[in-house]
Design goal:
Radius of gyration: 46 Å
CATH class of one domain: Alpha Beta
Shape: flat
CATH superfamily of one domain: Histidine kinase-like ATPase, C-terminal domain
Order of helices and strands: HHHEHEEHEEHEEEHHHHHEHEEHEEHHEE
Largest sheet: 5 strands, antiparallel
Length: 572
């Protein structure tokens, strides 16, 4: 009984191996891929070749015959414009001849000088002009008549060879047949004329003619005919594709067919190459994973490009490798996460402390100074001074509150969502007030060149004061000893321009744009880091842009640091 069960189990395993598909070996896959890489591209190439053979020739012929009709039309327009100019010039010159004999003599001279006119007449009645036109029309000659300022008529008859050379100069080597027919149905000029093809082209014309637009017609698909009926002047242009042109076009298409076959062959090589490359990528992933783990990169995983052709051996190795790496990586990720959180908390704490010490120092110093003054008993302080000191303390307390709020809304500045209260503001008064708040321990000279009559700006007064204080303190901090910090102002158009400049080391070009980023600071001329958090210019830019303004920093050898603030002027 036991032997029977074992035999049945073995038979079942053999059946499963035959029925259930298994992953192919590399050698087996190469044979299958080679077969499909040859068969599929060849089938596609046959379809493409047949499609090109049916459509490419017709499309090219139709496009070229339309282009030819438009070219001849453009040449006709140029010809008539040229002749109009010539006849008008003749008309202008006739004004200077006071007798009929002199005018006729001038016309004869013009005819002799110009090689384009087979005949050039000056007649003195409309009937004579029409008579010449009718005679020329009966002889298929092109005539152009111009009425002069003295009610005379200049009748110009053109040589047919001149017209032909003018219109078909660029088409000498083209084998297409071109006919230009006047409004009476008579042939004016032609290119590669044959009587049979001409009559055949006329007989195939549709009953309804479309004006000023190229129309393809004809009953032979590979020999399209195009007509273009011009209304100004009234002419009909017919372009006929000859049999020789069709043959030449067929040769071009044969070249395209050969090119398509070549592309098909290249496709076979590309498909085989891609498969080899595909196999190489998967194997390379295995090697990279092993090397990464050996160097301590435990997060490395092998990601195969899986398909039905992915070999069993590669899939098995990749799965086992990923299981091993996952177990090692779990503990490593937990430890790494905790380290990152500790670093982020430490950086946030340092930045917050630096920001508070930098941004709140100025208002706290002012409050402390004026409070100490009020508390002194050794000097007499009158009511006006007390009131002024209390106002400064109040203003700086409010500023202190705003600065704290600004620090808390730095993300809002980054997202351009900070709130401002816009109103008419005297920038002169703001600068004067700001100068009383500036921390200037080295007592550097600050020159205010703003006029009391400077126009009002439309901004938030407190925010502007905060900007001015911040920029002046920066200018004082980085300027050379015994130099001045200069405040200037100008206005143009709709904007006020406030500039603050000092003398300091030139700032490199690549460093200027970085100054508006958070925690960016400059070095002084002793190569020491100047104290500060690097948030000042970041906040200044955010506040300026919130008030619809702009800020720009420049640095040259003459002026070490110059900042320009553009703010909108107040409009009554």
């Amino acid at each position: 009984m036991t032997r029977k069960i074992i035999r049945n189990y073995r038979r079942l395993r053999k059946f499963q191996k035959k029925v259930i598909p298994h992953r192919l070996k590399i050698a087996e896959q190469i044979l299958i891929v080679s077969f499909f890489a040859v068969l599929i591209p060849m089938v596609i190439s046959g379809i493409v070749i047949n499609n090109i053979n049916q459509h490419a020739m017709r499309a090219q012929l139709r496009q070229s015959v339309s282009m030819m009709a438009n070219m001849v039309s453009d040449e006709i327009d140029a010809f008539f414009k040229t002749t109009d100019v010539e006849l008008k010039q003749i008309n202008s010159s006739l004004k200077y001849f006071n007798t009929k004999e002199k005018k006729l003599k001038y016309i004869e001279d013009i005819k002799a000088d110009f090689g384009s006119y087979s005949n050039l007449n000056l007649v003195f009645s409309e009937d004579e002009a029409k008579k010449i036109e009718e005679e020329n029309s009966s002889q298929n000659k092109l005539t152009k008549t111009l009425k002069t300022d003295n009610n005379e008529y200049i009748v110009a008859t053109f040589y047919e060879d001149y017209i032909k050379n003018y219109l078909f100069m660029s088409l000498k080597n083209d084998e297409r047949q071109i006919y230009v027919i006047d409004k009476s149905g008579k042939l004016l000029t032609s290119h590669n004329y044959t009587d049979e093809i001409y009559n055949q082209s006329l007989s195939l014309l549709p009953d309804k003619i479309t004006d000023n637009h190229v129309v393809i017609y004809g009953d032979v698909k590979n020999q399209p005919i195009a007509y273009l009926h011009k209304t100004s002047p009234d002419l009909l242009i017919i372009v006929n594709t000859t049999e020789n042109v069709t043959k030449n076009t067929i040769n071009d298409n044969r070249f395209k067919l050969l090119l398509a076959v070549l592309i098909s062959g290249l496709s076979i090589l590309i498909v085989v190459g891609l498969y080899v490359y595909y196999m190489y990528i998967n194997i390379r992933q295995l090697f990279k994973g092993i090397i990464a783990i050996s160097k301590g990169s435990y997060e490395r995983r092998i990601r195969l490009l899986k398909s039905i052709f992915t070999p069993y051996e590669i899939v098995f190795l990749a799965a086992e490798f990923n299981k091993m790496a996952s177990e090692v990586h779990k503990a490593y990720l937990i430890l790494k996460e905790q380290n990152v959180k500790l670093e982020q908390l430490n950086e946030f704490r340092s930045n917050l402390i630096d920001t508070i010490s930098h941004e709140l120092r100025t208002p706290l110093t002012s409050i402390q100074g004026y409070t100490s003054r009020l508390l002194r008993t050794d000097i007499h302080i009158d009511d006006e001074m007390k009131q002024k000191s209390l106002m400064v303390i109040k203003r700086q307390s409010e500023r202190l509150k705003r600065l704290i709020e600004d620090l808390l809304v730095i993300p809002d500045i980054e997202r351009q969502r900070i709130r401002v209260t816009l109103e008419p503001v005297s920038i002169y008064e703001v600068v004067v007030s700001a100068l009383t708040l500036v921390k200037n321990n080295e007592e550097k000279e600050i020159v205010n060149n703003l006029s009391e009559n400077y126009p009002l700006i439309y901004a938030d007064k407190d925010r502007v004061e905060q900007i001015i204080v911040n920029l002046i303190e920066n200018a004082v901090k980085y300027s050379y000893e015994n130099t001045k910090v200069i405040i200037d102002g100008s206005y143009n158009g709709d904007n006020a321009v406030i500039t603050i400049s000092n003398q300091c080391d030139k700032i490199p070009e690549d460093k200027i744009e970085q100054l508006f980023e958070k925690f960016i600071r400059l070095e002084d001329n002793q190569e020491k880091i100047v104290k500060g958090t690097g948030l000042g210019l970041f906040i200044v830019k955010g506040l300026t842009e919130a008030m619809n303004g702009n800020i720009k920093i420049t640095s040259t050898d003459e002026i070490g640091f110059k900042v320009e603030i553009l703010l909108p002027l107040f409009k009554q």
